[in-house]
Design brief:
2 copies of one chain form a homodimer.
Chain A (H helix, E strand, L loop, with lengths): L1 E3 H4 L20 H14 L8 E2 L1 H8 L3 H14 L2 E4 L3 E4 L4 H25 L3 H19 L5 H21 L3 H11 L9 E3 L2 H19 L3 H24 L8
Antiparallel strand pairs in A: 1-5, 2-4, 3-4
Chain A binds a DNA duplex (30 and 30 nucleotides) through helix 4.
Chain lengths: ~250, ~250
DNA sequence: ACCGCAAAAATTGCGTACAATCCGAGCGTC
DNA sequence: GACGCTCGGATTGTACGCAATTTTTGCGGT
């Protein structure tokens, strides 16, 4: 059993691209268009390095170039696209080294979030969410084997756990940066991390310990546990990339 | 003797706002306008929370609303402005806690950069730059007292040192994120950090040790030294904010 | 006076036309 | 045949006008 790395530590799922039926909950076309293009890229509709022509996108999406340009600029600032003046936007090409590096960064940021959460404490609501997530995870793992539905369920549990800690850090910039790390597409869904029962169980145990440390306001332990927790996912990713060490960069 | 925190670890200096004489080296109006508005904000031309009206800016800058809108969006993604759909952009208000938090984040990121630099090694050019910066710093500190020019000179030395390590991390996202931390305006140049001779000397000694660790490929030591190096600046900032502990948040 | 509501003003969002720039094909020269 | 140049098409950058939304203003009721 294995799943994409993205689920290993929790991540929102994209939806389809050119569905004109899009509910368009977004308050403005620019934002809506950005969401749709982002989802399209993350679902692999464009080759890495492909140019994104403003007119074609605007025709395909049924809007003018203006909101498309705005959306492209947003996506570039998110790191999903590259921009060259007078030469437009293209899908950013991620080297495997960049994907691994994103986990290095995320390791530092998530461990900081855990430390800050421990230092600053949790609200009642946050405690409730985490305890719910831990209980749900316990339930899923009570069975000795994981089905597809369990993996999806655990992904949600996992996301709730981490997301709540980000919130508990009371530091918006930190959450934003972690989001940027998560938005690095995992090499077009090609890189998978080992997702065996024991791996999940171990990560879930980590969650329990991290929560304990935060509750006890043990900032140092919370930081170190979270650091190891995320770093282990990186290690698994590196290993799965093909058993050999992360290849030289550039 | 003291200087703004921004110089304590190196940061580019902004230039004036509406100087139409602006060389406009930027390849496009949008980028040029973004630079000018950014400089204007960082130099304190706008109150925190102030709305930025597109038409007024476009008139003041002598361009149409289109590049202004593009520039505002860029600045918002940099974290300098806040955006609300249909309600425009306003200068982001930074709580002192957010400024301190930015240093917390930067501590983690810079220490990671130092570790990666140690793991991955320096190019000849990078070694040369750092050794030059260290030598220049030695020269400045040979005198037992610092004049204004020395402080400016040391700021440049300091910037070169850190910037080269960021580059040596071979991790673009890391550099980008550190830049975001640096772009948090230090509470309108009001927060200053102790900048006495001994403080600078100590930081310069840190630089020497960090460089040694990187040269020796001692990743752990490089990380820890850099962590303490940046954290000490944060501590100084917190102390200078008024001698009392960082006040409770929210 | 205070509150709610409606119309007007101000401001942002979007569409479209035009200008500037970039890229490649074709041609001429060496 | 290779190199450089010019020209044409394609694409992005900018200006401007109108539509949509928000905010302010003004009025009537209580």
């Amino acid at each position: 059993m294995s799943e994409t790395v993205s689920d290993a530590l929790g991540e929102p799922a994209p939806d389809s691209f050119a569905d004109g039926m899009d509910a368009e909950r977004a308050p403005t076309r620019s934002l809506s268009v950005a969401d749709r293009i982002r989802a399209s890229i993350l679902s692999g509709d464009f080759e890495p390095g492909a140019r994104l022509h403003e007119v074609r996108l605007s025709e395909r999406l049924g809007v003018s170039r203006t909101p498309v340009r705005s959306a492209l600029q947003s996506l570039a600032s998110e790191g999903l696209l590259e921009y060259a003046p007078n030469r437009g936007y293209s899908v950013r090409r991620f080297l495997t080294s960049e994907i691994v590096d994103a986990y290095e960064i995320r390791t530092m940021l998530e461990s900081l979030a855990a430390r800050l959460a421990a230092e600053r404490g949790l609200t009642d609501a946050e405690r409730a969410v985490i305890e719910g997530a831990l209980a749900d995870g316990d339930a899923i793992l009570a069975k000795a084997e994981l089905e597809e539905a369990d993996r999806i369920g655990y992904g949600a549990v996992n996301f709730a756990f981490h997301d709540t800690i980000h919130a508990a850090s009371r530091c918006r910039m930190l959450g934003d940066m972690i989001r940027m790390c998560q938005s690095v597409p995992q090499s077009s869904h090609r890189n998978v991390v080992s997702f065996e029962y024991l791996e999940v169980r171990r990560r879930h145990e980590d969650h329990h310990r991290i929560y304990d440390a935060i509750l006890l306001r043990d900032a140092y332990r919370a930081e170190m546990l979270m650091r190891e927790h995320v770093a282990s996912v990186k290690t698994g990713l590196v290993r799965s990339i093909s058993g050999r060490a992360p290849r030289s960069r550039r």
